[in-house]
Amino acid sequence: MTGATIIGAGAFTYFTAGAGAPAAVAGTSAVASWVSGSSAGSYMAGLSSMGSLFGGNAVLGATIMNGISKNILGSDLSSFASLSTLSKIDIIDAVTASALDGVANIGGSSNSQLQYEVNINIPKNLGSDSTREIVDKLYELDEEINEATKSNDPKRQTRLYQLKDDYSKDAIDQLKNHIGQKESQEDLVVLGIIAWNNHEYELFGQAVNNINVYKMDDTGFLNYLFALKSLQSGDKNSAISYLENSIDENSYAIEPILLYINLLGDADFVANEQKIELLCRKAEEKFDSDQYSSKYSLVAVYYRMGRYYFANKRYVKARQYYEKAEDQLGVMQKYLSDQQLRHTIRLNIANSFYQLKQTENADDIYRDILEDSTDTAEQDRIKAMYLGNKSDKL
């Protein structure tokens, strides 16, 4: 695990605070839309959605998508149209996995190069009134940004992003005033996370260092914060130790497991496969959405596992994990306004069958997806991304 760097990270919900529809799910359809390349508006909507999922705008979205593309193919998205279908699938699969689990490797494929952007989840209903007011406003603005993205309203998006920046700066100013104040533990946690989300890593580190462990009811959460701080500063061994302790202490929390799976899988999936499988089993056994309110779920774990196995040409295991992800959608489907995420997962199942030369099964699923879809643009994307339609599939 040497050489990994975290450049933005998300803390899981402190004291199980936070609620609402999973932000990643709400934006997944728009993220996927850029694959078809059907219009500039579609492409920009995808970039904006990806950026929004990671606390930024279309510029951050482009950075993440280009980073993912470079890791996989050695080139940015400018060459996307000329890629083989299988290469396109590899990229969109990685992008969708990042949209679902909030972790994007944008800086390399070896231990010495790993660099991440990881989504933040800001705790709600904690801290002083002024802190809670800022947090509520940030969540409100995120919802408005999602709506502006869906309606393809760039002017409104720009205005909303500016408002979000203003509120974030207010939070950072408040955090500077709270550093060293013993009575403001919850403010240090919440405002520190906002600072991290805005890449104010030194300030985040100061906030974490000022948190009194003896006043924390959830030391597993604090260990997660220390893991992030250690990763950002380059102390990989300490980060791993903190992360493992966090998982042991908060067995029902899914975010530290998601992050750890990504770190192991990106470093060397083949060498770390057994440990990754054990982490997946732990999530299956311990994660309980009734105990722990999070915008992530087992769908994210299973999709990420399917993505790793497909990329490593382990198509039986890939299909099995994509099928598990689809089964878990029943829990999340109430948050979706459409079926595009389900269709994306089912298309991955079809492509896995196709790579196994089980073309009848693959074709049946492909036809079912097309019949179920009522969106012409989505149908075009499905047709373009099904390996059974392409001569360059291998």
Provide an overview of this structure.
With 394 residues, this protein is mostly helical. The protein has 2 domains: 5-255, no CATH class; 288-389, Alpha Horseshoe (Serine Threonine Protein Phosphatase 5, Tetratricopeptide repeat). It contains 16 helices and 3 strands. The protein has helices at 23-33, 40-53, 58-73, 85-101, 129-150, 154-178, 185-197, 201-209, 219-233, 236-249, 255-286, 298-311, 315-332, 340-355, 359-372, 376-385, and strands at 5-6, 103-105, 115-118. The chain has a 3-stranded mixed beta sheet, sandwiched between helices. Helix 2 (40-53) crosses helix 3, helix 6 (154-178) packs across helix 7 and helix 9 packs antiparallel against helix 10 (236-249). The longest helix has 32 residues, at 255-286. The chain starts with a strand and ends in a 9-residue tail after the last helix.
Task: List the main descriptive attributes of the protein structure presented here.
disordered N terminus; 3 strands; about 400 residues; 16 helices; mainly alpha; single chain; about 65% helix; Serine Threonine Protein Phosphatase 5, Tetratricopeptide repeat; globular; three-stranded mixed β-sheet; 2 domains
* Average pLDDT rating: 80
Q: Give the uncertain stretches in residue-range form.
A: 1-32, 34-38
Helix content: 55-70%
Return the string of H and E elements. Answer: EHHHHEEHHHHHHHHHHHH
- Provide the number of structural domains: 2
**Sheet with the most strands: spatial strand order:** 1-3-2
Q: How would a crystallographer describe the biggest sheet?
A: 3 strands, mixed
Tell me the span between the first and last alpha carbons: 32 Å
Strand content: under 5%
Number of strands: 3
